[in-house]
Design brief:
- The complex is a heterodimer of chains A (about 180) and B (about 130).
- Chain A is an all-alpha fold.
- Chain A is built from six helices and no strands.
- Chain A is globular, with a radius of gyration of 17 Å.
- Chain B has a single domain, classed as mini-chromosome maintenance (MCM) complex, domain 2, CATH 2.60.320.10.
- The C terminus of chain B is likely disordered.
- Chain B has about 130 residues and is of the alpha+beta class.
- In chain B, strand 4 and strand 5 form a beta hairpin.
- The chains are: A mainly alpha (about 180), B alpha+beta (about 130).
- At the A-B interface, helix 4, helix 5 and helix 6 of A face helix 1, helix 2, strand 6 and strand 7 of B.
């Protein structure tokens, strides 16, 4: 039974992976766009995003692996760059790469002490720190004044993404037929 | 893929650490400065101008030669981004800055305006 399962995944694997990757990229881009539509939060550095689209990259990381999560992040960054300008693209990439990297490491860590909330918070904190780093490099230390609020927003956004993943994953595993 | 739990003990520790870091950063970075607000205008990390806001007699516009273009509005005791040729307008929405420690930034143009406190010689003169 498990053998046929493995064979099936090997046969359908590539096409299925590409399809899911496309879907997740579309979700990431849509969430990123939606977030851009929201009124900017008071106290947030210009161009910084909460990182709601991290749900999509984290879903890619959990179900498809680090390479796919990286692809989704790059596509999202390219979209931000094309639609909102180079600065927004850089911000998106810096936040996305750092948070995706951290989340992938946590997921790979066998004895990872964190639950989904902790993984979500780690991703969000890295996301915001990456964006702050780019803001800092583009301007000067004046932007460091945003750090406290960025950390607090990361707690909220991270807990929200963690909770969302926890709710989504069982359903997604069922539908996509991959092990949970 | 592992069946993770929503919550673990370490999550609480993580959340408290991040919250503590936020509070610590706020205490260190948001120290209220006293004295006259001095607007430090920087472009791409280089200081362009220092404007003692209390010494401003009448309001004027300060256009900056950046891409996208930015116009600062300077008035007695306060300063703001009046206009920016960028889509998000975050800097313009930051509004007036009038007390030391306040900051507004336009990232696309790489312009930052930060109010520092100057309680030096002028405070004595006053």
């Amino acid at each position: 039974m498990s053998k046929t399962g493995v064979q099936r995944v090997e046969q359908d694997g590539r096409a299925r992976k590409v399809a899911l990757l496309g879907m997740l990229s579309a979700v990431a881009v849509a969430l990123s766009w939606l977030e851009g539509m929201l009124a900017p939060l008071p106290g947030m550095p210009p161009g910084a995003k909460l990182g709601l689209s991290n749900v999509a990259t984290m879903l890619a990381a959990t179900t498809l692996g680090p390479g796919s999560a990286l692809t989704v992040t790059l596509i999202k960054g390219a979209f931000a760059g094309l639609t909102r300008g180079l600065t927004a693209g850089l911000m998106s990439l810096a936040g996305g790469l750092l948070s995706t990297g951290a989340v992938c490491l946590l997921l790979r860590w066998r004895r990872c002490p964190f639950g989904w909330i902790g993984i979500g918070v780690t991703g969000a904190v890295c996301h915001n720190l990456g964006q702050l780093l780019v803001s800092y490099l583009l301007t000067n230390a004046a932007v460091l004044a945003y750090l406290p609020l960025l950390l607090l927003f990361a707690l909220l956004a991270g807990a929200a993404t963690g909770l969302t993943l926890y709710i989504l994953l069982p359903a997604v595993s069922r539908i996509w037929g991959k092990g949970g | 893929m592992k069946a993770g739990r929503l919550w673990r003990a370490a999550d609480l520790i993580l959340i408290f650490s991040v919250a503590a870091a936020a509070v610590l950063a706020a205490l260190l970075l948001w120290r209220p400065a006293s004295g006259d607000p001095v607007a430090v205008v920087a472009v791409a990390g280089n200081e362009l101008d220092r404007i003692r806001l209390s010494a401003v007699a009448s309001g004027y516009d300060l256009p900056l030669d950046t891409e996208p273009g930015v116009v600062l509005r300077v008035e007695p005791g306060r300063i703001r981004f009046a206009k920016a040729d960028c889509p998000d307008q975050v800097c313009v929405n930051s509004g007036w800055l009038s007390s030391p420690g306040q900051t507004a930034v336009c990232l696309p143009a790489r312009v930052s305006v930060r109010l520092e406190g100057d309680g030096g010689v002028d405070a004595v003169v006053r």
